[in-house]
Amino acid sequence: MAGFDKVVSTYEEAMQGLEDGMTILAGGFGLCGIPENLIAEIQRKGTTGLTIVSNNCGVDGFGLGLLLEKKQVKKMISSYVGENALFEKQLLDGELEVELTPQGTLAEKMRAGGAGIPAFYTATGVGTPVAEGKEVRVFAGREYLLEEAITGEFAIVKGWKADRYGNVIYRHTAQNFNPLAATAGKITVVEVEEIVDVGELEPSQIHTPGIYVDRVVLGTFEKRIEKRTIKE
Fold first, then answer.
1. What is the pLDDT of residues 102-124, one digit of tens each?
2. What 8-state DSSP symbol labels residue 25?
3. 139: buried, middle or exposed (CB in 10 Å: 19+, 13-18, 0-12)?
4. Smallest Cα–Cα separation from 29: which of 175, 150, 159, 160?
5. Distance from C-alpha of 171 to C-alpha of 43, rounded to nearest angstrom
6. Best CA proximity match to 178, nearest among 101, 111, 117
7. CA–CA dist 153, 74 (Å, integer)
8. Is residue 109 helix, strand or coil?
9. Where on the phi/psi map is residue 129: left (φ > 0), alpha (ψ -120 to 50), or beta?
10. Phi and psi torsions of 186, nearest 5°
11. What is the distance, to the nearest Å, from the Cα of residue 152 to the centroid of all Cα atoms in its chain?
């Protein structure tokens, strides 16, 4: 079954085919469960004009914040962007286009994209700037916005364990946007802490089936703490 083996040996191979102007969906929440090495490879490649879909944009000097340093990002579609001074500067200087999206709506946009659903209605954002330019319909006496699904040429994902067929398990909070992003990329690349033989993962524990995954790469991770609070 060698043809089903999705493991690649290098990050360069993992991101093969990435080109300027593409849309990339990135898993993670804050600095938890982010595909940090795949992001670093995008920075190394110098790919530009990118649209990045992610809950947030990392921090200065780490995570997706790395891609801002070389101005590789043209547009961010995010729900929270408050931890990155460079992001703020590029936004205010008109160098970065930003589409702020309510967090639950962003999650559903990815899920719908992965499920082949082109759009959906949600009450979130009605009567706010989020609703500008969007269709509004009334269901059972309540107004709802029409929101379009999101897909991308690439999805970059951080998992805990995977087998060689691309079945993935996430650990704890990494089950945030990673499973959603994994389904919505034309090419989905997963970096993991451990790769096991086929059959070692308990089927009922698998979060992302291998059918969604194109490439798996083994990595080591820094696992930074975004904010540390200690008691004297």
1. 999 999 999 999 999 999 999 99
2. E
3. exposed
4. 175
5. 26
6. 111
7. 15
8. helix
9. alpha
10. -65, -35
11. 10
Question: Does the pLDDT value for residue 2 go beyond 70?
Answer: no
CB 51 within 8 A of CB 74: yes
Report the distance separating Cα 93 and Cα 229, nearest Å.
Answer: 32
**CB-based contact 100:78 (threshold 8 Å):** yes
| Bridge partner residues of 68 (DSSP) | none
- In 3D, which of 113, 184, 185, 103 has the Cα closest to residue 149? 113
Q: Is 204 exposed, middle or buried (0-12, 13-18, 19+ CB in 10 A)?
A: exposed
Neighbours of 62 (CB within 10 A): 17
Q: Which residues pair with 158 in a beta bridge?
A: 191
Tokens of 170: 């996430």
Fold of 2-119+148-218: Glutaconate Coenzyme A-transferase (3.40.1080)
Q: Which amino acid is at 60?
A: D
57-81: per-residue pLDDT in tens? 888 888 899 999 989 999 999 998 8
Quote the Cα angle for 23-28-32, to 5°: 155
